[in-house]
Design a protein that fits this description.
By secondary structure, this protein is of the alpha+beta class. The chain is built from 70 helices and 44 strands.
C-alpha cells in the first residue's frame, strides 16, 4: 500500500525577494510539516512550479497543470503535480516609491505602471506514484472549492487527500473521495514492473515519426545525451515518459529531468548522458551544445550533431521493426495502391495504438536478448545471488561480434541493471520473461512475415492494455469543475486562503493511528523459477556462416589428430596444411578442442617432440583467428588443454604447451580471464550443491552441454527457494563453502595466468611488446581504480621480498596484471578481506616460482635439436652479379594474386619457405611451398633491386606458427610483389641491415653506383669506385668535351651532378646584363666554340665520327635529310641541313650534338630562338615523310613569355624593338622556313613569302569563318577532348584557346554506331553526314581508310577539307599554355591545343595500375575487383590519349601537312607521340634495327630523363617512379596486337625492353641525356675494347646476340606491306591490358635474364633421375599457369620445329645452322611454290605472300602471345576470303598503296649481279645487289624483279673494300681479279663479279659512298 500524495504545498510569488526583473517563488504552506521517514521532502520544488521563471503579468492567464519529475539521492522518482492559477495584486512598484528607487525608476518604468498586476500561485502535490489524471482532478477540485466558494472546508479536502492510501499494484481498483461530493476510481496496474504509458508513446510517434523515435531509442540505449524541446510542459513530460516506456525491459539509469527550469540550464553541459526536457523558450541557449541530440516535439525534427555517431539496430531487425511500426501507425499505407481498398482502415484508438507500438518494441527486445540467460554465470548463491553476464559468448553465439549497437548496449549501464534485476533465477516473472523463454521459436518463424508479426504484436498489446486497465468498463468519475462565471468574471477574487495546519495535521495523525491498528496487508508475492528458454546453440541466426562441406573438414581434423597420436607422422604431415586451412572455420576449431580432450588422462598428456610440435601448431592456428574477447569460446576450451599437453625434456624438466602459445592477444585481455573464471566458479558451485543434494558425482564440465540434467541457474533457484527454511548454522556453512570455492579458484587462476603471461625466455620482453601488457593500466576495465590496484600490487610486492633484478620488469607487470584481476573478481564475488590479502601475498611467489621453472625449460629448449627446416636453395646468379647479403630464412606470404595460393585450382604454391637473397642486381626469393604435396617444386620470385618502388613493414602471423613475425612488403615496378616474413631465427637487427642495404642499392649516390656500372668490379659495397678506367682515351676525350662545354656555357649554368635548367627569369636577367644587343651572347658562344673545335681536332679526331655514327645521323641520311660531310659544302638547294650548333651541348643540354634545321636558318638565329622554349628545346626536324615530304618536328612547350610574342597580331602597337619582339619575329621566320621547305608549299605559292601566300589563298578562303571552320576536322575534335571524353583528363572544349573555331571543335563525340551501318566505305565509316558531307568523294575515303583508325567518324570527310585548304604546319600544343594567343589569319600554321597527361597523372595512374594487377591482399569487396581497380587507375585512358594524338599526327603528315609537336618540356609526352608517329608511318621502324634506332634517336639522344623518371639515384628518389617509356612500350604493344603482321619483333621483345629499362642491368637506359653520357664516358665506349666479353653494356648488343641464338624475339608472322601506314583503333574498348603486367613464372622467376634460363636447365639435367626404378614413366606433364613458363612448356609450332631441327643437327654431329637462315630458306621455298602454282592456294599464300588482302591481315590471323614465342591460330570464314582476291567492296591495301608508291624510296645508285659466298659450308649464290647512297646501304635480292629484300649490309659498318682471292666452291671459269672482299665490323663478305671490270666498278662505287660519309 502507498500514500497517494506525500506532500501538499502552496507556492506563491515572493514579493520580498525580488531581484531586478527576476521574481522568485516561495512555499507559503506545506502539509505535513514534518518529513515522512520513508520519503523526505524534495528540495527546490518552487523552481519547478514556474520552470521559465516567476513573473508578474498584466492580465490574468488561464489556470495550467503539468507534472514535473524530481529524482532524489537514492534515485527514487518523485512526481510533482503543479496546478497554477493567477491572483491579482496591487502593483508593488507603486507602493514602494522610495527615494532610493525613485532615481532608478526611469521614464520607461512610468509607462507601464498598472494599478493591478497578476502573480502566479501554484498548488503542488508531491507523490511517488504517477497518476497524472487523478492529480489533475484533485488539485482542480481544491481550486474549484476555493473559487466557487463551496461549503466544504478546504482543510477537509486537503486532509482527505493526504491520508488517502492505495495499493501499488495487483490490478485492484479503489474509489476515493475528498469529501466535496466527488468520486474517482483508481485502477492499479496488474504488474508493477511493466511501465504505464497511457497514450504517451503513440503521442511521441505522432510528433516525431518512426525513424526519429528509433534514432532516439538507439541514442538512449547507447548512452548519448538527448534533449526534448516543446512549448508545452506536459508534452515534455509525456515524451520522456513515452521514451522510457519503449526501452522496457531496460531501465534508464542516467539523469532524467523531463522539465528543466531555466535557472538550471547549465546542467545541459554535464558530461554524462541524460534525457532532459526544456521549454522551447530557451531554444537559443541550446544552440551551442555540440554533443546533444535535440528533438523538437513541436516541429517534429531530431537534430543529430556531426560529431555524434548513433549505432542503429542491426539489420534485418531495423527493417522489420520499421515495417511493423508503419503497419501500426499508418495501416492505410499498405493498401494505398489497391484498386478496391477496404472501407475502413483507421488506425486503432490512441490508447490501443500506444500499446501496439509498445508490443512492437517488446518483440524487438525479445529478439535482441533471446537466449541471454544461457550466458549468465552464477558465481554465488548465498547469501545473495551474484550473477555475471558473459558478453563475448553471447555475441559469438549470435554471431553479432561486429555489431556496434549490441556491443554498446551490452556494455551500457542499462544492461548491467537488466542483468542484476533479471539475472536471479528465483523471482517474480513478467511478460518479458515469458516472451524470451517461450516465444522465441514463434518469433523466429514469423519474423519474415510482417502480418504474422502484427498479430503477435496485437496479442502483446492486449496484454499491456489489460495490465493498465484491468477493469475497462468502470468509469464512475465525478469531479466538480469551477463554473464558467467564476473562471472569467470574478475580477476581484479573494486570494487563496491559508489553511489551518492544526486541523490538517489532525487528519493526518488520525489516519496514521488507524493504520497502526489495522492488520498488515500481506501480498502474496508469487516467486518462481525463471525459465531460460531454448539454449543459444540452437539459434545461430542467418549470419552464422556454416562453412561449405564442413563435415569433410572435421573428418580431416579428426584423422590428423588420430595420426599424430598413433605416431603416423608422415600421414599427419600430409594432412597438416589442409587441417590448418580447415581451422579457419569455427566448427573445426570446436572439433579440435573436443578431440584433444579425449587424449588427456588425469589432466596430463605426455608427447614426443614431433607430436608436441604438431599439436602446438594446431593450437596456434586455432587461436590466431580468435579475437581478443574470444566470442566463440575457443580459447576457453583450449585453456585446460594447454596446461595438459607436455613433453619431457630432461631430468625432471617438462615443457607444457602453454609456453608455445602465448603470443595471442586473448591471454592479455582482462574480460577473457573474468569470463573464464566465472564459468569455472559456476561449475564448481553447481557441483557443490549437486553433491550436497543427491551425493552424486558428475564429471562433465563441458559448458552448457545438453548432457546436463540441471543447469546451474536451476540449481540456484532451487537453493534460493530453500534458503529461508534453513537453520542459521546451515546458512553460514553454505556461505563459507561457496566463499572458499571462489577463493580456491582464484588461486588456480593466478597460476594459470602466470603460465600464459610469462614468456619462456623471461629476459626477453617480447610478450609485453605485443600485447600491451606492459602498459597494464591501459587495459583496465576494473571497478578498482588503477591507482589502488597499482599501489596494492606494489605494497605486496615489496613484502614478498623477491627483488630479482633481471626479470623484475616482466615479473612486475605480470604480478600487477594478476593482482588487478584478483581484486576485481574477488570484490565482485564477495571474497573476505583476509582471503584477498592472502591472495595478494601469494601472487608474487607464484610468479617467481613459475619464472624459475621456466628458466630450466628455456635452458633445455635451447639444447633441443632444431626442427628440420628445408635446406636453403642457392639462386643462380648472372655473370658479374654478387651477393650483398647471404640468404636469410623467410616465408613468402601469398598476396592478392590468387593463382599461386591454390584458390583457383591447382596446388597451393604459396605460402613458401625459403630464403631471400640480396645481390647487387636483384632481390631473389628461392624456396619450397609449405604444402608438402607440392614440396618438391621450387618457387622463385625475383625482381631487379632498381625496380623497387615501395617498401613497407608489415607484421605477419604464419598459419603454422605461433609468433607474429615482422615482415616486409616489397613492390617492384616490374609488376612483382614480395610479402616476406622473417623466420624467428633471423635477428631483427639483421632484418634492419637488410633494409638499409636494400635502400643503398636502390638509390645509389650517383648513377655510377648502379649495377650496370659496378658489374664485374669487386663486390665491395662502396659507392664511389676508384678502379682504373677501362677506356682511358675516351674518358679524357669526354672530360675535355665537358670542360670546354662548361667554359662555353659561362655564367649561365653552375655545374652540378643533378641537372637543373635555369629558369626563364634567370636567363632574361642574364640577358639584360649584357645590354640590349641580342647578338652579344651568341657571339660569345661562337668565339669559344671556334677555339674548342680546333682543340678537339688536335686531341682526337674520333669524336666527330662518333657523333656521326650515332643513330640519329644514320637515320637522317636514310631519310634524305642530309649527310654531315656535304652539309658544309653543299649548294643551298636541299631544304634541310645538319647543324652542329649544339655539338658542345651549349645551346641545349638535353638535345643531341647534331640537329636537322632548315637550310636557310643560320646558327646564330637558333641560339636566340631556343630561349623561347622550355629547357631551350627549340623545334628540330626528326622525320620526313618520303612521299609527301611533310616533316615532323619536336620541341618543348613555349615559355610563358614567348607565347604572347608568338601570336602577337602584326598590327598590335609595339613598344619599341624589345627583345621579346625580335625573338618572336625570328621564331616566325623559323616556322616560315620550315613551311617553305615543303614541296606542296612552294608549288602552290610560287614564292616563299608571306605576301605570295596571302594572294594565292585569300581568294579561295572566304573571310567569313564558315570555310575555315572544319579545317582540322573530326579527328582533331576528338583529340582536343569533347564533353564525353575521359573524365579528369581534359577540360571541355577549347573555347579560350581557339576563339570562334572552338565551337566546332568541342562538338560532342559522335557515336560509333555508324561504323556498323556503312561497311562499303572502308574501315572508317563516316557519321558526319550532317550536310557538310554532301560532296563526299569515295576515292579519297578509301585511300584514307587504308588502315583501321580510332575515328569511325570524319575519316573520309577529312580529306576533302584538308585538300581544299589545310594549314602547312600544325602545332600540337598544350591547351594550358596557349591561352590568350590569337590566331592570325595570314599565318600558314595552325595551333591544335590538346590537353596532355601530366607526369604526376602518369605516376599516380601507374601506382593504381600496379595495385590493380598485383594487389597486396585478396579482397572480396566488389569495389576492389580487378576491373574496377583497372578502371580507376585510368591507365588505359592515358594510353588512349597518347595513341589518339599520334594517329591524328600520322593523318596530318600523310595528307601533306607538317606537324610540330610542342608539349610540356619536350621530353615526355612529346617523345611518346613523336616516336609513335614514326612507328606508325614508317615500316622501317617496325624492324629490329629500325626500332632500336627509333629508341636511340628519340628517347636517348633527345634526352628523355630516364634516370630522373626512373628515380634511379638518391637525388631523384623524391620525384618517384614515372614510367613514361613503359607507357610508350604499352602503346606499341597495343598497335602490335592490332597489326600482328607488320612487326619484325615479337611481343616478348617489348616485354624484354619493359623489364630491362628499369632493371639497370644495361647502361643503355641510364642517365638523362647524351651530354650526361659523354660526361661519364659512357656514350662511345661501346665501340672500344671490351675486357669481359660476357658482360654486355648495351641492351641492344645483348638482344642482337640473343637473336642470333634463339628466335624468341622474332615474329614469325612478319610479312610487311610496302610503305604501309598503320592507323590503329584507339578507343578504350579496343585496348587490352598487357599481359606483361599480369604474368609470372614461379618456377624460374622473370624470363628476361637469359643466362639464368640456360644455367637452370643445365643444373636440372645434371641431377639424374633417382626414382627411375623401372616403372613406366608418364609422358604427360602438368603445366601450371603461374608456375611454369608457358613458352617453354608449350612452345608454338614453328619454335618447336626449329628446336627439333637443332637437336637433330646436334645428334647427327652437324654444325647447327642459324635459325634465321633455316627460316629464310623456308620462306624462299614457300615463295617459289607460290610462284609455280597457277592459282595461289590457300596454304601457300597464307603466311608469306606480302600482298595479303588487308581484311585477312587483321581478321584471319591472330598472334597469341605467350611469354616467349607465338602460336598461330587461324580463324577464317572460308577459303575464298583467304585468296589474294580481296573480299567484295574492300579494296586490298596493296592495290590502294601502289597508286602513289614513289620511286624515290628505292634510290638505286648502282646495281647488278654478284655472286656472294654463303655462311660456313654454304655454296656461292648469284644475287641482285643494289647500292643505295641515300640510305647508305648495300641491299641484295633473289632476282632483279624481286621486291622482298634478302639482306642489307649497312655501309656505316663497312671498314674496307679489298680485292679478294677465290675461295672453296667459287663459281668456275671466272678470272681471279673479279673477286673482292667487303670487311664490316661484324664479318667479312666474299663477292665475285662477272669480270674484273665489273668488280673494279663495284669497289669504286662502294669506296666513294664510304668517303662521302
Amino acid at each position: 500500500m502507498a500514500r497517494l500524495a506525500d506532500y501538499y504545498l502552496v507556492v506563491g510569488y515572493d514579493l520580498d525577494k525580488r531581484a531586478e526583473g527576476e521574481g522568485q517563488g516561495r512555499i507559503l504552506q506545506r502539509f505535513p510539516e514534518k518529513d515522512w521517514e520513508d520519503s523526505p521532502f524534495p528540495q527546490g520544488v518552487e523552481l519547478f512550479c514556474q520552470p521559465s521563471g516567476w513573473q508578474l503579468v498584466p492580465e490574468r492567464q488561464p489556470a495550467s497543470f503539468f507534472v514535473a519529475v524530481l529524482t532524489d539521492i537514492n534515485s527514487e522518482r518523485h512526481y510533482c503535480a503543479c496546478f497554477t492559477f493567477w491572483e491579482g495584486l496591487d502593483n508593488p512598484q507603486l507602493q514602494k516609491a522610495e527615494a532610493s528607487e525613485a532615481d532608478e525608476a526611469d521614464d520607461e518604468l512610468a509607462v507601464v505602471q498598472l494599478a493591478q498586476v497578476f502573480a502566479p500561485k501554484s498548488l503542488v502535490l508531491v507523490s511517488r506514484l504517477d497518476y497524472t489524471e487523478v492529480f489533475r482532478n484533485c488539485l482542480g477540485l481544491i481550486y474549484t472549492v476555493h473559487v466557487d466558494g463551496l461549503t466544504v472546508p478546504l482543510e477537509t479536502v486537503v486532509g482527505n487527500l493526504l491520508t488517502c492510501i492505495i495499493p501499488i499494484a495487483g490490478g485492484s481498483q479503489r474509489t476515493i473521495t475528498l469529501g466535496a461530493g466527488d468520486r474517482q476510481v483508481i485502477q492499479t496496474p496488474i504488474d508493477d514492473s511493466l511501465p504505464v504509458s497511457g497514450s504517451t508513446v503513440a503521442q511521441l510517434f505522432r510528433q516525431l515519426g518512426i525513424i526519429n523515435v528509433l534514432y532516439l531509442l538507439c541514442a538512449a540505449l547507447t548512452e548519448h545525451k538527448i534533449l526534448f524541446l516543446s512549448s508545452s510542459y506536459q508534452r515534455l513530460t509525456d515524451a520522456c515518459r513515452g521514451l522510457l516506456a519503449i526501452m522496457f525491459p531496460l531501465k534508464y539509469s542516467f539523469t532524467y529531468v523531463p522539465i528543466l527550469p531555466g535557472k538550471l540550464l547549465e546542467v545541459l553541459s554535464t558530461p554524462t548522458p541524460f534525457i532532459i526536457g526544456v521549454n522551447s523558450f530557451f531554444r537559443s541557449e541550446t544552440q551551442e551544445l555540440l554533443d546533444v541530440i535535440i528533438a523538437d516535439l513541436d516541429g517534429g525534427t531530431v537534430t543529430i550533431p556531426e560529431c555524434v555517431h548513433i549505432s542503429l539496430l542491426p539489420e534485418p531487425l531495423l527493417q522489420q521493426t520499421q515495417t511493423v511500426l508503419s503497419m501500426v501507425l499508418d495501416p492505410e499505407l499498405e493498401i494505398a495502391d489497391h484498386a478496391f481498398p477496404p472501407l475502413s482502415t483507421q488506425p486503432s484508438a490512441l490508447k490501443i495504438q500506444d500499446k501496439e507500438i509498445r508490443g512492437v518494441f517488446l518483440w524487438l527486445f525479445a529478439q535482441l536478448f533471446q537466449g541471454y540467460r544461457w550466458c549468465l554465470h552464477i558465481i554465488r548463491i548465498h547469501p545473495e545471488p551474484v550473477i555475471r553476464f558473459h558478453k563475448a559468448a553471447f555475441l559469438g553465439q549470435r554471431s553479432l561480434t561486429e555489431d556496434d549497437f549490441l556491443m554498446k548496449v551490452l556494455d551500457g549501464m542499462a544492461f548491467a541493471g537488466f542483468v542484476s534485476e533479471r539475472g536471479p533465477p528465483y523471482r517474480v516473472t513478467d511478460l518479458f520473461d515469458d516472451l524470451v523463454a517461450n516465444h522465441v521459436e514463434r518469433i523466429r518463424q514469423e519474423e519474415a512475415c510482417p502480418h504474422k508479426v502484427m498479430n503477435h504484436v496485437k496479442e502483446l498489446a492486449e496484454l499491456l492494455f489489460r495490465n493498465e486497465n484491468p477493469y475497462p468498463a468502470v468509469a464512475m468519475h465525478k469531479v466538480q469543475r469551477p463554473s464558467e462565471s467564476s473562471q472569467n468574471a470574478s475580477q476581484k477574487q479573494s486570494p487563496f486562503p491559508a489553511l489551518d495546519d492544526v486541523v490538517v495535521q489532525l487528519f493526518i495523525d488520525h489516519a496514521a493511528a488507524k493504520l497502526k491498528t489495522a492488520p498488515p496487508v500481506v501480498k502474496a508475492e508469487v516467486k518462481g523459477m525463471v525459465p531460460s528458454g531454448p539454449p543459444l546453440g540452437d539459434i545461430v541466426d542467418r549470419n552464422g556462416h556454416v562453412m561449405a562441406n564442413s563435415a569433410r573438414r572435421l573428418e580431416v581434423v579428426r584423422n590428423c589428430i588420430t595420426y599424430i597420436f598413433e605416431n603416423k607422422m608422415l600421414e599427419a604431415k600430409k594432412l597438416m596444411p589442409a587441417v590448418l586451412r580447415a581451422l579457419k572455420g569455427r566448427a573445426a576449431r570446436v572439433c579440435l578442442t573436443q578431440e584433444l580432450n579425449q587424449h588427456v588422462l588425469q589432466n596430463r598428456a605426455v608427447l614426443d617432440d614431433q607430436q608436441f610440435d604438431y599439436i602446438v601448431r594446431m593450437m596456434n592456428c586455432t587461436l590466431q583467428d580468435c579475437s581478443h574477447i574470444d566470442e566463440q569460446g575457443i580459447a576457453a576450451a583450449l585453456l585446460p588443454l594447454v596446461t595438459a599437453f607436455c613433453r619431457k625434456m630432461g631430468a625432471g624438466i617438462t615443457q607444457f604447451a602453454y609456453s608455445c602459445v602465448q603470443e595471442h592477444m586473448v591471454w592479455a585481455t582482462m574480460q577473457f580471464w573474468e569470463a573464464m573464471f566465472y564459468s569455472d566458479v559456476q561449475n564448481h558451485i553447481r557441483a557443490l550443491y549437486l553433491e550436497t543434494d543427491e551425493g552424486e558425482q558428475q564429471n562433465n564440465h563441458d559448458g552448457s552441454g545438453d548432457g546436463r540434467e540441471i543447469s546451474a541457474l536451476d540449481l540456484a533457484s532451487e537453493q534460493s527457494r530453500l534458503w529461508p527454511t534453513l537453520s542459521k548454522e546451515m546458512q553460514t556453512e553454505r556461505v563459507q563453502k561457496e566463499e572458499s570455492t571462489v577463493f580456491s579458484q582464484a588461486i588456480h587462476y593466478a597460476n594459470r595466468m602466470s603460465y600464459l603471461l610469462l614468456p619462456l625466455d623471461t629476459s626477453k620482453n617480447r610478450l609485453l611488446r605485443t600485447t600491451g601488457l606492459a602498459d597494464v593500466e591501459s587495459v583496465s576495465n576494473s571497478y578498482v581504480t588503477n591507482s589502488i590496484a597499482g599501489s596494492m600490487a606494489e605494497s605486496y610486492d615489496t613484502e614478498s621480498g623477491f627483488e630479482d633484478a633481471e626479470s623484475s620488469d616482466v615479473a612486475n607487470s605480470v604480478v600487477r596484471f594478476i593482482n588487478r584481476f584478483v581484486d576485481k573478481v574477488c570484490n565482485e564475488s564477495g571474497v573476505t578481506n583476509e582471503h584477498l590479502k592472502a591472495l595478494h601475498t601469494m601472487i608474487p611467489d607464484i610468479v617467481q616460482m613459475h619464472i624459475e621453472t621456466l628458466d630450466a625449460v628455456h635452458r633445455e629448449s635451447k639444447r633441443l635439436p632444431p626442427i628440420q627446416k628445408p635446406k636453403l636453395l642457392r639462386p643462380t646468379l648472372l655473370p658479374g652479379e654478387e651477393l650483398v647479403m647471404d640468404g636469410m630464412r623467410v616465408h613468402l606470404i601469398p598476396d592478392g594474386r590468387e593463382e599461386a595460393t591454390g584458390l583457383m585450382g591447382g596446388p597451393p604454391l604459396l605460402p613458401a619457405e625459403g630464403a631471400i637473397f640480396l645481390t647487387n642486381y636483384r632481390l631473389i626469393f628461392k624456396g619450397t611451398p609449405n604444402d608438402p604435396l607440392v614440396g618438391e617444386q621450387v618457387v622463385t620470385r625475383s625482381f631487379p633491386i632498381a625496380s623497387l618502388t615501395k617498401e613497407k613493414r608489415i607484421s605477419v602471423t604464419l598459419p603454422m606458427d605461433q609468433f607474429v613475425q615482422e615482415g616486409l612488403q616489397l613492390r617492384s615496378c616490374t609488376f612483382q610483389l614480395m610479402k616476406i616474413a622473417f623466420d624467428e631465427e633471423v635477428a631483427s637487427d639483421l632484418a634492419e641491415v637488410f633494409r638499409k642495404h636494400m635502400h643503398k642499392l636502390r638509390y645509389p649516390q650517383h648513377v655510377q653506383g648502379t649495377f650496370a656500372f659496378t658489374v664485374g668490379q669487386s663486390g665491395k659495397m662502396v659507392v664511389e669506385h676508384k678502379t682504373k678506367d677501362k677506356n682511358q682515351s675516351l674518358k679524357t676525350l669526354s672530360k675535355n668535351l665537358v670542360k670546354s662545354a662548361k667554359r662555353t656555357i659561362g655564367r649561365q649554368y653552375v655545374t652540378r651532378k643533378k641537372y637543373s635548367p635555369p629558369t626563364w627569369e634567370n636567363r632574361s636577367s642574364f640577358q639584360s646584363e649584357l645590354d640590349e644587343d641580342e647578338i652579344s651572347v651568341s657571339e660569345e658562344v661562337d668565339q669559344s666554340s671556334l677555339t674548342l673545335s680546333s682543340t678537339i681536332r688536335s686531341s682526337d679526331r674520333q669524336t666527330m665520327s662518333n657523333v656521326v655514327e650515332r643513330a640519329c645521323c644514320r637515320d637522317y641520311q636514310r631519310l634524305g635529310l642530309g649527310t654531315l660531310s656535304s652539309s658544309l659544302t653543299r649548294s643551298k638547294n636541299e631544304p634541310f641541313r645538319i647543324s652542329t650548333v649544339n655539338r658542345m651541348y651549349t645551346v641545349c643540354r638535353s638535345y643531341p650534338g647534331l640537329l636537322i634545321v632548315p637550310q636557310s636558318i643560320p646558327d646564330t638565329t637558333i641560339q636566340r630562338i631556343c630561349r623561347c622554349y622550355r629547357q631551350n628545346r627549340f623545334p628540330v626536324v626528326c622525320w620526313r615523310n618520303p612521299r609527301t615530304k611533310a616533316v615532323l618536328l619536336r620541341s618543348a612547350g613555349l615559355h610563358a613569355k614567348g607565347v604572347v610574342g608568338f601570336f602577337k597580331s602584326p598590327n598590335a602597337p609595339a613598344s619599341g624593338p624589345s627583345q621579346a619582339d625580335s625573338t618572336s619575329l625570328e621564331q616566325e621566320k623559323y616556322l616560315q622556313a620550315i613551311i617553305s621547305s615543303m614541296p606542296s608549299y612552294s608549288e602552290s605559292s610560287g614564292r616563299n613569302t608571306l605576301s605570295g601566300f596571302t594572294s594565292t589563298h585569300m581568294s579561295t578562303s572566304d573571310s567569313s569563318d564558315k570555310l575555315r571552320q572544319p579545317k582540322i576536322g573530326a579527328l582533331m575534335k576528338q583529340v582536343m577532348g569533347s564533353k564525353e571524353d575521359v573524365p579528369g583528363t581534359f577540360s571541355r572544349g577549347g573555347e579560350t584557346s581557339l576563339g570562334q573555331r572552338a565551337k566546332v571543335i568541342s562538338l560532342s563525340q559522335p557515336k560509333v554506331s555508324g561504323k556498323a551501318r556503312s561497311p562499303p566505305r572502308g574501315k572508317w565509316g563516316s557519321i558526319r553526314g550532317s550536310g557538310r558531307l554532301s560532296a563526299y568523294n569515295p576515292d579519297v575515303g578509301t585511300r584514307l581508310a587504308a588502315k583501321e583508325s580510332p575515328q569511325p567518324n570524319g575519316g573520309p570527310s577529312e580529306a576533302l577539307f584538308l585538300r581544299q585548304q589545310k594549314a602547312y604546319l600544325y602545332i600540337i600544343g598544350d591547351k594550358a599554355q596557349l591561352k590568350g594567343g590569337k590566331q592570325d589569319s595570314f599565318q600558314q600554321w595552325e595551333v591544335v591545343p590538346i590537353e596532355v597527361c601530366d607526369v604526376r597523372q602518369v605516376k599516380n595512374s601507374f601506382k593504381k595500375l600496379m595495385k590493380a594487377c598485383v594487389p597486396s591482399s585478396s579482397t572480396s569487396d566488389p569495389n576492389m575487383s580487378f576491373l574496377r581497380c583497372l578502371e580507376e587507375s585510368e591507365w588505359i585512358a592515358l594510353l588512349h590519349r597518347v595513341l589518339q594524338v599520334s594517329v591524328l599526327v600520322v593523318e596530318l603528315l600523310d595528307t601533306g601537312s607538317s606537324v610540330m609537336v610542342s608539349l610540356e618540356d619536350g621530353w615526355d609526352v612529346t617523345t611518346q607521340v613523336v616516336s609513335l608517329v614514326q612507328l606508325l608511318s614508317d615500316p622501317y621502324y617496325r624492324t629490329f634495327d629500325g626500332f632500336r634506332l627509333l629508341v636511340e634517336k628519340e628517347w636517348l639522344s633527345f634526352g628523355h630523363r630516364f634516370s630522373h623518371r626512373g628515380a634511379q639515384t638518391l637525388g631523384s628518389q623524391s620525384s618517384g617512379f614515372t614510367p613514361v617509356f613503359l607507357q610508350f612500350l604499352d602503346c606499341v604493344h597495343q598497335i602490335h596486337l592490332q597489326f600482328p603482321m607488320e612487326f619484325e619483333f615479337s611481343q616478348y621483345y617489348l616485354k624484354f625492353l619493359a623489364y630491362h629499362y628499369v632493371s639497370n642491368r644495361f647502361r643503355t637506359f641510364l642517365l638523362d641525356s647524351d651530354y650526361e653520357r659523354i660526361e661519364l664516358g659512357v656514350l662511345y665506349e661501346e665501340k672500344g675494347e671490351r675486357k669481359s666479353p660476357q658482360v654486355c653494356k648495351s641492351v641492344w648488343d645483348y638482344i642482337d646476340r640473343l637473336n642470333k641464338k634463339t628466335p624468341v624475339f622474332y615474329n614469325y608472322m612478319f610479312s610487311p606491306e610496302d610503305e604501309e601506314v598503320l592507323r590503329p583503333y584507339t578507343f578504350n574498348s579496343n585496348l587490352k591490358v598487357w599481359d606483361f603486367y599480369m604474368e609470372e613464372t614461379l618456377s624460374e622467376g622473370p624470363s628476361y635474364d637469359w643466362e639464368l634460363r640456360g644455367r637452370q636447365e643445365r643444373a636440372a639435367e645434371e641431377t639424374p633421375d633417382k626414382a627411375d626404378s623401372g616403372g613406366p614413366k608418364s609422358q604427360r606433364h602438368i603445366v601450371w599457369p603461374c608456375y611454369d613458363s608457358l613458352s617453354k612448356a608449350v612452345p608454338d609450332a614453328i619454335t618447336k620445329l626449329l628446336q627439333d631441327l637443332q637437336s637433330l643437327e646436334a645428334e647427327l654431329g652437324q654444325t647447327p645452322e642459324k635459325w634465321k637462315d633455316t627460316w629464310d630458306k623456308m620462306k624462299m621455298a614457300q615463295r617459289g611454290e607460290a610462284k609455280l602454282e597457277s592459282k595461289p592456294s590457300f596454304s601457300s599464300s597464307l603466311l608469306m605472300s606480302s600482298n595479303l588482302s588487308h581484311q585477312r591481315r587483321s581478321q584471319g590471323v591472330y598472334l597469341q602471345e605467350s611469354a616467349g614465342g607465338s602460336s598461330i591460330n587461324l580463324a577464317l570464314d572460308c577459303e575464298a576470303s583467304a585468296t589474294s582476291t580481296p573480299a567484295a567492296g574492300r579494296p586490298s591495301t596493296s592495290t590502294l598503296y601502289s597508286q602513289f608508291q614513289s620511286t624515290e624510296s628505292e634510290n638505286r645508285s648502282f646495281e647488278g649481279i654478284l655472286f656472294k659466298k654463303g655462311a660456313l659450308l654454304k655454296p656461292w649464290k648469284p644475287r641482285w645487289f643494289v647500292l643505295d647512297k641515300t640510305k647508305h646501304q648495300l641491299r641484295y635480292y633473289e632476282s632483279r624483279q624481286d621486291k622482298e629484300c634478302k639482306g642489307v649490309i649497312e655501309l656505316g659498318d663497312v671498314e674496307s673494300v679489298i680485292p679478294g682471292t677465290p675461295a672453296m666452291g667459287a663459281p668456275k671459269n671466272i678470272e681471279e681479279k673479279a673477286f673482292f672482299d667487303l670487311k664490316t665490323t661484324k664479318r667479312v663478305y666474299n663477292f665475285c663479279a662477272q669480270d674484273s671490270l665489273k668488280a673494279q666498278l663495284w669497289m669504286d662505287s662502294v669506296q666513294s659512298c664510304l668517303s662521302d660519309a
